[in-house]
Specification:
With 134 residues, the chain is mainly α. The chain is built from five helices and no strands.
C-alpha cells in the first residue's frame, strides 16, 4: 500500500482503527462484486478501498453502517430440546414409581472423576502376602 494513500485517508477518517475497519469492509464489498468507483490501475482490493475513501467517492456513513452491521452478532441461547425434557420426565417418573425420592433424580452423562477407579473388592481374592518364605 502506498503511504500517500493512507495519509490521504487519515485526513478523511482520523481514527486509524476506524479507517482499517472501513477499508477492510469496503475491500470485502468489492470482493463480493460491488462496483468500484475509481480506476483499478492493477491495484488489489484493499488499495482500491483506501483510494475510494481518500477520494471520497463512496459514502463513509453507509460504509460505517455496514461495518457496524457486520460486527453485530446474534447469540442464540441453547434451550433444552423437548426430547431431552421428555426423557428427564420419564426417568423421574420411573424413579418415583420405584419408591425413590423425586428430588434425588440425577442424570449423569459421564463421570470423569470415576475413570480409572476400581471397586474396593476388585482384587479381593488375590493374596499379596508372601507365604513362601524360605
Amino acid at each position: 500500500m502506498a503511504r500517500v494513500t493512507i495519509e490521504d485517508c487519515v485526513t478523511k477518517v482520523p481514527n486509524r482503527f476506524e479507517l482499517v475497519m472501513m477499508a477492510s469492509q469496503r475491500a470485502r464489498d468489492v470482493s463480493a462484486g460491488s462496483a468500484i468507483t475509481v480506476d483499478r490501475d492493477n491495484d488489489k482490493n484493499p488499495v482500491v478501498a483506501l483510494r475510494e475513501i481518500a477520494d471520497e467517492t463512496i459514502d463513509l456513513a453507509e460504509l460505517e453502517e455496514a461495518v457496524i452491521k457486520n460486527l453485530q452478532s446474534y447469540v442464540e441461547m441453547d434451550e433444552p430440546e423437548e426430547d431431552e425434557m421428555d426423557l428427564l420426565a420419564i426417568q423421574q417418573d420411573h424413579y418415583v414409581d420405584a419408591g425413590g425420592d423425586s428430588a434425588a433424580v440425577m442424570v449423569i452423562d459421564s463421570a470423569p472423576e470415576l475413570e480409572g477407579t476400581l471397586a474396593p473388592d476388585a482384587f479381593g481374592d488375590v493374596d499379596v502376602t508372601d507365604d513362601d518364605k524360605d
